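Bit of a strange request maybe. I'm writing a small parser for structure token strings and I need a real example to test against, not something I typed by hand. Could someone generate the tokens for this chain?
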Amino acid sequence: MNALNVKQKVYEAVLRAQEEAAELARQAMTEADQAAQEEVNTMDIYESYRSQYLQKSEMFARQFQKASEQLEIIRRIDPNRKCDVVEFGAAVITSKQKMFIAIGMGKIEIDGETWYVISPQVPIFAAMKGKREGDEFSFNNVKHKIIQIL
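Reply from user aminoacidic:
Good idea to test on real output. This should exercise your parser:
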């Protein structure tokens, strides 16, 4: 499989996971809203329950907003563009791990391989930003060599 196909697979997995997170938050927000509205139609004794549902709805609305914002960040990436340096949108294979520079999502599995989806705001990105294939960098006193940038 060529390098851009690997990057495309990683990109699609990240996009799909973030779309699912946004949809789950949207559904949870909708369900909490509906539950709160149902409590409106009952006696005042249930006002505290309604308040709890509204708080949950607001929490899920914030989660949905954040997931939607992160989805827009991911969509800015062109998975068909090969990066020459470590930058936003690059898939980076080092001697220690495989990373995709997008959003802070953490570890994902793709075809039995572990990838770390990281944000450009994390310290390891700062240590390798702008590096090229073959370059080395040190992070937490561990040396990494950049094997491939996709």
